Amino acid sequence: MSDKQHTLHSARRLGRLMSRYYLSSRYHSLWGPLLRRPLAWVTSGAPVEILRVFGIHPFYPENYGALCGARRASLALCQAAEARGYSQDLCSYARCHLGSLFSPEHAPLKKLPPPDLLVACNNICGTVLKWYEELARRLRVPLLFIDTPFIAGELEDRAVAYVQEQLRAMVEELSRLTGRRWDAARARRIMGLSNEAVLLWREIRYMGRHRPSPLNAPDLFIHMAPIVVLRGTPQAVHYYRLLLSEVRERVKKGIAAVPGERVRLLWDNIAIWYRLNRFFRFFAERGACFVTDTYTGGWDTEMAVREDPLESLAEAYAGIFLNRSLQFRVRQMVELIRDFAVDGFVMHSNRSCKPYSLVQEEIRRQVVEQTGIPGLVVEADQTDPRAFAEETVLNRAQAFLEALAL
Ligand code: SF4
Asked: Which atom from ligand 1 is nearest to the alpha carbon of 125?
């Protein structure tokens, strides 16, 4: 990384935390069935707190897809999946993960610990349904699926009740599979840990409001891992407490993530993982810092305390931002732009993630209209480098920064 960006010291601690997480996935895969603590492969928007009540360890193929991208293994893995007939139009997280089953020698963690069950929820996209059905068929393990209705306006009671009913059925099924009983008090404790981590993560993200910002987008993308994979654990809470104190210290000392910060930007969509540092360094070298983004706030959902924990979970997981209307996303971006005093925004039109990307042009138009702030759309893919014409994108970024009078 260039001297134009400061790496957080917590990154080393994060590395150790994630290594332990992956090791415990192997442990659960080996001993879980004996100890009645099975391993589940789950989607990023699955209500993981329920699994934790039953002692089930969650492993996240999407997070693994991001790791494959960051380690530059994603091209070989996507190609391995395509050689088996999976379309190049399929999300590259799915192709990376499927490719790692066919060609583990190309994957960062080699052969993945096999799951005892699969849990998918379509609150992020419809792709996960077909992806997990395919896994269930190939691996011959049970698939539990939660269907969340798309929230076109406000979250209505009937939508919450519909999801809550499915969560109840899921609880019964998990009870049958693990031989353990549902414990509502334990669920509340786990949800309390989730909320604690969510609030800490929110506070960390909001440190970007300081000028200069102590955080740049790569910091947010790297340090979001625990809020995804360790939600509902004391480890996530502990980690974010330490990270928050480091970020506060930066603010106190006036340490900028981008020294000489001259322009403040917002990032929309998933990172370009295989170019994470190089891409954002291009901006940092021109004094531009991405002080906030829409993606790493995706797990910023605090759960209300209701008598039935399943109702709180239904509410929280149905309301995930990718399951919300275009107007909701416009509102969210406008608020971020105002809260973080942003000068411009960059939208990653991500070939893989259709629900995130297809409406971006209209969101851009409305956000520009409401804020007067300019927005640039760049085309790439989160983990498939073949969809990224780097030179063209950087030329456009250069012109965008010049238009911001840098
Ligand atoms: S299509 Fe988007 S939301 Fe769905 S798995 Fe891929 S990246 Fe995630």
From this structure: 4
- Residue to substitute in 68, 86, 89, 91 for testing ligand 1 pocket (most ligand atoms within 8 angstroms of CB): 91
- pTM: predicted TM-score of the whole model, two decimal places: 0.95
Residue 189's CB is within 10 A of a number of other CB atoms, namely 15
91 in contact with ligand 1, CB cutoff 6 A = yes
Q: Ligand 1 pocket, 352 CB below 6 A? A: yes
Q: Report the distance separating Cα 249 and Cα 331, nearest Å.
A: 31
Q: What is the mean pLDDT of residues 248-254?
A: 97
Say if domain 3-185 classifies as CATH 2.40.50.100.
no
pLDDT exceeds 60 at position 131: yes
Arithmetic mean of pLDDT, 58-81: 97
Which amino acid is it at 143?
A: L
Query: Does the domain made of 200-403 have the CATH classification 3.40.50.11900?
Result: yes
404 Cα: distance to centroid of ligand 1 (angstroms) = 32
Burial of 369 (C-beta count, 10 Å sphere; 0-12/13-18/19+): exposed
pLDDT at 406 (0 to 100): 57
Same fold, 3-185 and 200-403: yes
Residue with CA closest to ligand 1 atom 7: 353
For residues 111 and 215, what is the distance between their CA atoms, to the nearest angstrom?
35
**Whose CA is closest to atom 1 on ligand 1?**
353
Instruction: Spell out the domain ranges in the chain.
Output: 3-185, 200-403
